[in-house]
Structures are given as C-alpha cells and as structure tokens.
Amino acid sequence: MSPPLWIAAWALLLHGCAAGRAPQAPSTRNDIRDCSADPPYLPPTATNTTARLAVLRDILRTHGVHAYIVPSTDAHMSEYISERDARLGWLTGFTGSAGTAVVTRDKAALWTDSRYWTQAERELDCNWELQRTTSIESIGMWILKVVPAEGNVSLDPFLFSIDTWNSYSRALHGSSRTLLPLETNLVDQGWGDQRPPPSSSEIYSLPAEFTGSSWQEKVAGIRQRMEQHVRRPTAVLLSGLEETAWLFNLRGDDIPYNPVFYSYTLLTDTTISLFVEQSRLSVQARQSLRSGCPGPLCVELQEYGQVSAHLRRYAQGNVTVWLGTEYTTYGLYAIIPQEKLLEESYSPVMMAKAVKNAHEQEMLRAAHVRDAVAVIQYLLWLENTVPQGQVDEFSGAQRIDAFRWAQEHSRGPSFESISASGLNAALAHYSPSNGSSRTLSAREMYLFDTGGQYLDGTTDITRTVHWGEPTPLQKEAYTRVLMGNIDLSRLVFPSNTAGRTVESFARRALWDVGLNYGHGTGHGIGNFLSVHEWPVGFQSNNVPLEAGMFTSIEPGYYQDGEFGIRIEDVALVVEAQTEHQSGEKPFLTFEVVSLVPYDRNLIDLSLLSPEQIRYLNSYYERIRAHVGPELRRQRLEAAYVWLQESTEPFPVSSAGTAGTAAGLLALASLLSVLLSGLGA
Amino acid sequence: MSPPLWIAAWALLLHGCAAGRAPQAPSTRNDIRDCSADPPYLPPTATNTTARLAVLRDILRTHGVHAYIVPSTDAHMSEYISERDARLGWLTGFTGSAGTAVVTRDKAALWTDSRYWTQAERELDCNWELQRTTSIESIGMWILKVVPAEGNVSLDPFLFSIDTWNSYSRALHGSSRTLLPLETNLVDQGWGDQRPPPSSSEIYSLPAEFTGSSWQEKVAGIRQRMEQHVRRPTAVLLSGLEETAWLFNLRGDDIPYNPVFYSYTLLTDTTISLFVEQSRLSVQARQSLRSGCPGPLCVELQEYGQVSAHLRRYAQGNVTVWLGTEYTTYGLYAIIPQEKLLEESYSPVMMAKAVKNAHEQEMLRAAHVRDAVAVIQYLLWLENTVPQGQVDEFSGAQRIDAFRWAQEHSRGPSFESISASGLNAALAHYSPSNGSSRTLSAREMYLFDTGGQYLDGTTDITRTVHWGEPTPLQKEAYTRVLMGNIDLSRLVFPSNTAGRTVESFARRALWDVGLNYGHGTGHGIGNFLSVHEWPVGFQSNNVPLEAGMFTSIEPGYYQDGEFGIRIEDVALVVEAQTEHQSGEKPFLTFEVVSLVPYDRNLIDLSLLSPEQIRYLNSYYERIRAHVGPELRRQRLEAAYVWLQESTEPFPVSSAGTAGTAAGLLALASLLSVLLSGLGA
C-alpha cells in the first residue's frame, strides 16, 4: 500500500517526471472552482470558510500574530490522524492527507503536492490561494512577501517535526520576521466546541498469545540498550503512538485503521511514566501496568497533558534523554537542553520493534495465510460477477473488506482500500467513494491494494487483474513489474545492506525497455500496528535490512489516463544459504509471506528467465502448501479448486531458450520422419 | 583505482567485515615496534620523533594550548598532498595517506584505519599510541580524558573541512574545554626551515586543442548558473585545486600525479580574482588571463596568501557567496557571515566540470585508446617474461609506467601504480616498493591497477590475470566479478539516477554465492586532472548520473592471505535507445571507454547468461575496431596479433542453455549418422 507519509517521495518523482502535465482547470469544468469568474464559481464540494477565517484572524490579532502556519499532522507525527486533529481540513475545507496552510490578516494559502491539486480545486473556496508545491522554501518566500518586517510568524511547536521547524527557522533567518512558537493552538481556539472531543474508548491489553514478549521483557531490553550505549542515556522519550502501544502491549482505536491511542512514554533507568487518559485503561491493562509497583517495573500513570511539564522537571537533573527525531515534535525537543539530548533518527523502541522475534514472525505468517483466503475469495468472486457488470470500485472495496472481517482475529482493514479500474489505477493514490465509482469490466485492468488488521498481524497486498484481452503493452508492463518483484524477492545480499541500495532490482526489468514507476518500492509493517511501520523499507531514510524484519515489495507501472499496475507482497528478511560467506554474518534474502497467485492472463512467459520461472513455481508450491489446507479447513471448496488451477507450475523450457528449443523440436521431428521412413 | 579519499568507505566496510582479524603484533616479528619490551624494540623503518615532539610541545606551551590536532590533508582538502603539506608524516613518521595525530603536553596519539595499522606499527616510535579507529567521537573522548578542564584544544582551521570542525565542536561541546582555532600552524613553526619550500615550477596554459572550451566560456557558464540560482549569489568561491585549474585551463605540478597548483578563485558577477604565486605563471598564461582587462573577463592576479583578507573585505558588502562545503576549509568558511553564505555540497564549477562536453568526451576516448595500447603491450610483455621468473611487482610497475610514457601526449602515471601478486593483491591498498617486491609467477594471480595522465585525458584501469592453472574458487570469483562489471556496464536506467542506487548490480553475481567486496564501485575521472574526480560515482555522496559523466566501474573480490581480483573500466554515461520512455528525458546507459580484453584463462563461460556473452562479444568488437588500427599505426604487430586472439568472440550457445544445446548436438550427430547410413 502506498499512502501519505512514504508517498511524499513518490509525489516528488511523479511531479519531476510529468512536469507540465499538471491538471489544469479548463473553465468549462464544473467540478472545480473558478475564482476568476464573476461571480466566482464554487462547486458543491467546496466549503465556505469565510466565517472560520474571520474567527481565526481575530485570534491572530489578539496574539499579535501576522501569519499562522497550520500543518496536516498531529502531535505524534502520525501518518493517519483523528478527526480531532484535522485542523487543516476544518480551516480550509481541503481533506487531502498532506498540506500546509498559512493564514495572514488578509490572505490565506494552501500548499500541497501534485496528487491533491485537483482535489484542492474541488474543496477550497476563493478565500484560498492554491500553491502547487510543498517546499518550505516556497512557503517562506510567500510569507516574506506578505508579512511586514518586524512581523510575527507563529505556529504550534507541538505539531511540527524538528526538521520542519528548522527549515522554517532557516527560511526566515535574518529577515526581521520572528518565528514565534505559541503553545496554545489558535485553530483549536477558533474551532471551539465544534471540535470533535477526544476519544473515550477503552485502551486494552493484548492477550498474551498475541504478543511477542511481555512488556516487562521489552522494557528490560530497552534499558539494556541504554546501558550499552556509549553516551549512557538515563531515559528514553517516546512520542510515536506505535512506540508506546508496542512497548506496553496495549491497543486502542483513536486513529482510523491504526490500533493506537494518544500517549507519551518517558522510560528512565529506574522509572516508567506513561502519559495517557487514565480512565480509558481497561481494568486488566491497569492491573498489568501496576503489577510491579513500587519498583523499576512499576508504570506510573500520568495525565496525557502533563508530558511537557514532567519532561521539563526531569531535564533539570543530571540526565541524558534519548529520542528519535523522526517522531518527536520540536515542542518537546526544545524542552531538553542540547547537552542533555541523545538524538538519533529513530528511538531504540522503533529499532527493537522493527526486528520481529520468532513468535511475532509466526503470527505475521499466520495472519497472511488467513488474509490470502480473503483475497482469493475476492478474486474468485470478481471472476464470477464482473462479467455481469454488477461490481463497481466501491462495492468491490466493500466486498474485500467483508471477506477480511469474516476471518479469525480480524479487526478490519489496515487502511482505506484502494480499488481502481482502468485509468483510475494510474492515479497513485486513488480510493473510490460511493457515488463516483467506476464499474469493473472485463475490458479493463483492475488494481486493488488492500490490507487487514488482525490480532496477530497487519497485512497489505496488491494484485492487478484483467479478465479479458489485455493489450500487448499491458501484458509486457505487467510481466516486467512481476519480474521486478521476483528479482528483488529472490535477491541474496549481505547482512546490514541498506534497502535503498537494492531496490533497483525491482525496477530493472522495466528500465530495460524505458519504463519506470515514480514511488518507493516498499515499507515495513507491524504486528497489529501500522501498515507503514518505519524505519524498515527501501527508501533513503530506512535502516539497513536485518533478519526478522518485514517489508512490502511493490513495484508498479502507471500509464497516465489508461491503466495502472502494482504487484505488492509482504516479505520477511531471512538468512540465505550460500556456498561461501564473505564477512561474519550470514547473507540474507526474502521469504514472501503474502500467499496469493498472480494473474496468469497477464504474464508473458517468454520474457521470464528460467531462474525467474523456477522461483515462481516454488512460490506457488508454498502457496498451495500453506493456503490450500486453510481453504479446506474453512470449507471453501470452490476457492480451493481456483487456487489449484491458479498455481499450476509454469513450464521452465518455454523461457529464454525459445530459439534453441524450437531447433531441438524441428530436429526431433525430422528425425522421427527419417526413422519412420527406415521402418524403425 | 581505489586509494585514499574515496576508500574511506572501503576501510569501514572491511573493518566491519573482518573485525577481529586485525593484524596483531606477535612479539616474534621484527618488522614492527614492541613498546612493551625492555628496552622497547623499534624496527629500522621507525622514525625517532622525540626531538620533534619536544619542539612542538614548547610551542604549545607558548600558545597556551593543551592539545593540538594534526590532520593529513592540505588547505584545499586535496586527496594527494605535496611534501610541504606532509605535516602528519614529519611529526609522526607515519607515511600513510590518512590519519589524525593529537599531541598534548605529555601524550601523543595517532588515529588511522585498518589499511594502515601494520604500516603504523612499522613507522611509529614509542612516543605514539596507535588508535585503531578514525571516529572523531573516539578522538574527542581521548582528548577529554587527557586534557584538563578549562584546557585549550587547538587546530589550524585552514586544514579542516567544515564537517570535521563541526564534529570536533560537538565532541567537546559542554565539556569546559575550548576548541581554539589558531591561524598560525604550530607544526610548521616546529618544522622550521626543514620544511620543503613551496613549488616554484611553471604554471602553464593548456593548448586550445586540449580544452573543452575557453576559460572565458567557462566563466560565462558559471555566471549564468549564478544568475539562474534562486538565491542569486554574487560570487563563487573555489578552494579545490582542480576547480581553478579546470576553470582557467591552467595546469601545474605542485602535487604528485595531479597536474594542479596551489590557488583559490573568487569569481564574482563582475570580477575575477585568482589567488596564486604570480611569478610562476607562464607568459602565455598571464597573457590569456589578462587579455580581457579591464572588464568583467579580466582576471585580477592576487597573492595566494591574500585570499582570507580579500574574502573578509568582500564579505562586508551586500553579497552572497556560493561555495561547495566538500572542498572548503572551516577557516575560509567562517570568514563569511552565515546569512551571506550559499552552501551546497559541491560548487557550480565542480558540477559543470563533471559533465564533459562533446570535445572533452572525444579527448577522453582518444586517451583511452592510446592507454589501451600501453596496457596491451604490458600484458603481452608479462606473458612472455613472467614464466622466466624475472619480473617482480616493482619492475612490473616500472614497465607499465614506461609503456605509458611512450604514448603520445603522456604526462606520466595518474597515481602510484598498484602491482600486486598472489596474497598481496588481497590488500586493498598495496603498492610495491623496490626491495620488498614479490616475484610474479604463473602459479599466482596478478592484479595491476594503473592509470595515465595525458594532455587529453586521465585514465585508470585494473586487470587481473593468471598465466597458469587457476583454482576453481579463483575462476568462479573472477567470473562473478566480471559478471558484475558487465551487469552494471550494460544497465539501462532513468536519467538522474543516483549511482548508489545501481551499484549493487556490480555485486549481485558475487552475492548469489555469498561473496562480496568491501570498497566502492567507482569514481569520476578528469580530463588531464584528478584520477578521482568528484562528485561523480556510486557512493552516497555522489550526485545523480547524467549523460556526459565519466565514472570507473570496478567490482572486485579479495580472499585474505590468498589472492585479490579487481576488474576496472572507465565508462561514459550515454543516452540509451529504449522501446518506451517514462519521464521527459531519455534513459541512460554506459559506454565503456577502457578498451582492454579480460583474461580468458579466468572466465568460466558456463556461469554467464547469453545476454552477458553477447555484451562481451560486442565490447570485444569495439576493442578491435578502436585499438586494432592504433596498434597497426604504431607498428606493434605482435600486440595486434595478441589483441585479435584475445578478443575472439565467445560462443553464445555455451551459456545457460547448456542442457538444451547438448541435446541438440546429440540429436544432430545421431541424425548425421542416420543420414550417412542412408547414403544421403
């Protein structure tokens, strides 16, 4: 799956590749605004923000602020946010997942990337300028133009990463405008009682069978990392919601698709402080956390809002606080004096969570077997119903969600299902909505990128299918995407290799004929946590690959206005068996744990090498061995038959050696003629 | 070729891989020092530094300094340095190319990487601790241990990069020790009149036929980049010696193997200041530089030592100075107020120089044809003389240097020739010396990594050969190194791809069987300039590949204590012909311009794919077409015959399809028997 946070690079690439092809607004369209018309034209999808802006501007004046910057994220740098944190959406009407708004006393502008330009023109009213870029340099230059010298440019420091804060600081440096952090959020003041209340649902302990180790073991492990670190930190500060959820084996539902809850943790060498709405903890959860009290394994429960004050007090001592800069806001970071900081990109909890232990690996494998059942049921259902023209993208998405819900331990989808037919699949980030949904057809390709949350694991898989006659380009592109998926999946590489140095193997088959895709090649994934779990993956800010990590592998190809292809599997990094071994550690390779066959109708076998076909056949054998019995157990006979047919081994001889094999055949038949002529 | 600057990553990797295998000092060895013996044992290769240290310590006291840091580079961040800049060598006796010394009032220590540990034990006396690491964190911790609180830690800011300075600053931050920059160099004070004088040889203009464009055109191009930059810089500051040499089409010989001269340039929108020892300029050079005076294309000649004062004055105005941080010292950098700086990793001159124009490409191609003649002559000479046991590594190196000198436009080797037989080739950085040189033998592999300076181009090539019976591992490893070289050379990839994302293609064939190499895969190269020309290459700090760039491609394999393999070619990035094209720009691939065949004796053809063999055959065709006529022109008939034999096409059918081909053959012969039996 390929949404917000990690798609930023994708958007940039696409933008780079397709410059000039940006969706422009012809005046005849009625789905987008036209602010140059008289009177201005607004589509029904636009939000009237005049009153909201007036309220916010009054508040700006009260605080002596000349420009206020509003981001799209929350105080935990979450990829997905709750309704309560959708400040950008409330203020602007724009509902895309990434953007930045700046409001001055008489102007308002929104910056977003190319994925969202059309959507923004549909949702913004004419109070807003749309800026078709996301560079902070550009935001800074706009601010310098509209804010008078000596003016105050303000923002909520608890909603900005350290990096982003520094970029704004650089952009305004020496300009005589002041970058003014305000701890009270001005949008929240304007939003007032219309702002959704905080979640009050229960925060619960995961049953022991669904955890890799007890929270006490995890805490001990982190404390060991602290002791072993050369800087000898006295505490670890956790801001990422997954970090606290993973550490204490707790889950909640504060954020759609992500079973996490609002919280911070300060884990010191002798104490544990969990900042959370205490009343929401289940009795069991509270008992578990308090079972070691008093003592170093006693969790002190503190109010969520107390984290800053607590940290400020703690930082007065002779301490060193270890934190991951990628998930810490500038607001929290700035509380700690520089010399008491131990900064790394990711906290030790993120690093520990990234390497799954044997039980976590088993759970993720098991979740993928049940997930494969749901996906196979969906593929079979599509085969039977698409030809009747009764399925559209939206009803399809509902159907796959329903198949997943029916599986054991299911907790629903792990992200909003991407279900895209024909040209819609060429949009990197398409999700259908009820009412504007394309009907699936045997004349078009169909791409679905979906995943599930299960108590034992999180899944994410993309398959692309065609039920009719694909064009030669569709078949070639699909086959080359598949070759890329295979080439990366079967790669053998040294321990500690960075993902970014091997992801091109997923592209080479496309590159060979001048094709490519504009997004990343994969991301980490959790055990009943985030579908995009950093820091594992193939991008430049991902950490080196180690045995026990899980990552998606998802090359694709997108033909603007025509079709889109993506083939995505989740794979576990495992030790490889090699004849030799350079270095101290075994070499690594991938074990693909997604277990759903590819569309035979779209594979041009003549492009594959014998090694690729052999790999494919052995993968299909594993699918049969693992998913077949589960289908039978669930008494899904039709799906079982479908699976057997779909995983028939491919003939190896038809690859590469085509010419020689043909020669062999011709000779053999000539021989048989001769032999029969001889009466042999 | 794979020495100092860019080998840092190599050393780290090797260290990572071979931890624990560091050469230890058994007390029975007499080639290294033994400071625990009584009296301490020093080999004859060690230098007595007691007097030098005493002098330096007196100077330290005079300046109120408690520790002084001495680096291995010069004021231009050069990879190679002149004798006059070999401060580290004079002070310590250690002659390796990378290291850092710290001297306090009663201690002295040297930090260097694993390539140099044994060499350091041979060259240091017992005044010195050897620290087997190069991390600045470790140097900082040592300093904190031995320097009292409130002490001064000093260094010459004109010998440290901005990055390195910042690292020391961080390491001492909050420690109550002061990092004190001293513009007068304390080692130079101690060295006194024993220090070699500055070079006085002539600085000359390259003849027009050997330049890609006039210096006036180059200056105009850089000024255009300044105008087009969003920050509108008013000046570009050049510290790298190659930068000034390239910009003005001037050359000198201040540094071994590198035809450059000590200089700085400040190019503003209206003026040009060249800081250089004026009396050294040839009449022609001076005329060329002054031909546009007065005016914006007039070069004002300033004394080399005036650069700081001039820059300080310039920086007082309303200016913005553009510089590349990789080649600028902290000393110069700190002169410019932060808000007047435009910092990028590489200056616009480095970026312009990296992309060769059509004439520069032609020159580099032509230099490689003549260079191939020298290398082929050497290979033939080795074949004839090695069996008699009369060649050793040192005399071999002399011989290849001589073959190069005999070629037109030759200006000698482009680096110290690496000539390594048997186990010596397993050392990444081996160069033979007269007296300690291994005899070449038909029973061992031999690796030579050499290059030439020609007026039209710089070359760099590595071939590995075996004149007898290689072991199965040698043959397999050589073939897989070759496969890696081929796979990267024939790769098709999108424009603007970073080298680091594709360099693994040079490793995969090795990885497949658990082998690898611990160094980078290639580096840029100049037109009669540096053999390691940044910022082109495959490492993480290299810039994206563009058509017109040249880079080496040099995978290898090293078996500790046994043998070493490297196959290095120089390749030009060119546009590829692809069936499709994603994005706006054509895809790219490489054209290998090194034109010397590989050792057939070491190739296991059965490992190669048909595509690899076809590539090899077409490369050999190009060698014949380009080098054959040149050999004839030079009347080198024996070499011509050798070339024809060595470039015979390989049979494609013997690869991959072995099984099928064998079947075909068997059938065909059966058929012929039958036919002859029939009297056909």
Walkthrough of the structure:
- The structure is a homodimer of 680-residue chains.
- Chain A is of the alpha/beta class and 680 residues long.
- Chain A is built from 20 helices and 25 strands.
- In chain A, strands 4-3-2-1-5-6 form a six-stranded mixed beta sheet, sandwiched between helices.
- In chain A, helix 18 packs antiparallel against helix 19.
- The radius of gyration of chain A is 27 Å and the shape is globular.
- Mean pLDDT of chain A is 92; it is low at 2-27 and 657-665.
- At the A-B interface, helix 17 and helix 20 of A face helix 17 and helix 20 of B.
If you compute it from the alpha carbons, what radius of gyration of chain A comes out, rounded to the nearest whole angstrom?
A: 27 Å
Overall pLDDT score of chain A: 92
Low-confidence stretches of chain A: 2-27, 657-665
Sheet bearing the most strands of chain A, described?
6 strands, mixed
What distance lies between the first and last C-alpha atoms of chain A, to the nearest angstrom? 62 Å
User: Structural class of the helix and strand makeup of chain A?
Assistant: alpha/beta
What share of residues of chain A is helical? 25-40%
Count of beta strands of chain A:
25
